[in-house]
Amino acid sequence: MRKMTSLILVLSMLLAVVACSNANELNNTASPKGDNAEDGLQLEPGAELLIWASKEDLPFMNAVSKQYTEKHGVPITIQEVGAGDTLNKLTTDGPAQIGADVVIFTHDHLGKAVAAGLVLPNDVWQEDTKSANKDNIIRAVSYGNIMYGYPLSIEAPIMFYNKQLVPDPPVTFEEVVEFAKGYNDPDKAKFALMWEIENFYFNYMFIATNGGYVFGNNGVNFNDIGLNNEGAAEGVAYYGSLKDELLPVRTGDVTYDVKKGQFLSGQLAMNIDGPWLVGELKKKGDMYGAVPIPSINGKPSVSSSGVKSWYVNSYTSYPNAAKSFAHFASSKDAQLLNFQLTGAAPSNSEVMLDEGVQKDEFVSAIAKQFENSYPMPSIQEMSAVWIPMAAAMSDVWNNGADVKQALDQAVGQIKDSISGGSSGGGL
């Protein structure tokens, strides 16, 4: 019996040693550096990630991916995908198991992504994300009271200007119109100010500044549409008046490429556009500046805005590694790096107070405009808004259509589309 007992003890010790050895081997396999856990989240053995990035984001993506791989030993491949193509590509590639593990898009596409089951909640680092960002940013990256995004940067349209042509940028639209009287020369394609006059994202400033809105209750109540109320009609009427006073062209003539080309060539003095233009303008040295959008009808301009965030593909084979990367690549240090490499305006409240960020006139203009903006609704019913509103405002601009009638018709189309479940379009 004593011999049997001794044999059992020896076998038990051997089994414990083998189990411990196997556990150590598993941990070391998960990451070449053995650093395979972040805040208690165990990364999958053999994890590797695919990231989609727009051309403008590539400098930051390459740098932050290298840092993450050095820390966690997880290989990362980056593929260039246009910002406007990301969600459509994920819709097909995600379920096919060939999509990126982590993607970036602005929050107004979140409702569509959630409805299609394409993204995972930001659950592990939810409290970290909340403490680092203001409430309006958290609302923007949440859907149905569930947070999905890992905020990276904020976007709002601002007014860029050529410092040689406009030493002192106007602060009101009335001043812009006055400047145009002595500057415009349509025969030479010289204009004081342009924005994409057919694009509702930019035209929203005329509606919101005067009290109009898309959906009620911070953009989630699609039964309350404020696009044809008294304030909205007043704003669109003012918008229509600017054709004769400021920009005597048809809406279809002002495309992004045309406007950008005229601005960079020195024909266009001022250009209302988004942060995606900042990187290219900074390469021109001190030639261009930026300020918030001029006031409209004596009121500070209220614009649309967006929150650009990381999202984790729900079909990823490595959800823990993907979440870990999204958290790492949206951290305070990562956002500062993004600002330094691309000029992006940080969402992180602490990074926004950084001295270098504060001194940057482009980011300062974006931050000021964002504070006076409404993030575009992220619910999927928003997709029913873009086309009818673009058509209504273009009809007012191009044809002098009755403002209230055009807006009423657009809102009717939006309601029909939502109730019929056939909403389409998009930014």
Automatic annotation (TrEMBL):
Q: Where in the cell is it found?
A: Cell membrane
**Family membership:** Belongs to the bacterial solute-binding protein 1 family.
What membrane topology does the UniProt entry give? Lipid-anchor
A Pfam match: SBP_bac_8
Q: Does the keyword Amino-acid biosynthesis apply?
A: no
- Give the signal peptide, or none: 1-23
Q: Which protein is depicted?
A: Maltodextrin-binding protein
- Give the main location: membrane
Q: Which Gene3D superfamilies match?
A: Periplasmic binding protein-like II
Task: Check the record and name the PROSITE patterns matching this protein.
Answer: PROKAR_LIPOPROTEIN (PS51257)
- Keyword terms of this UniProt record: Cell membrane, Lipoprotein, Membrane, Signal, Sugar transport, Transport
Please name the source species: Paenibacillus oenotherae
CDD domains assigned to the protein according to its UniProt record, in alphabetical order: PBP2_Maltose_binding_like (cd13586)
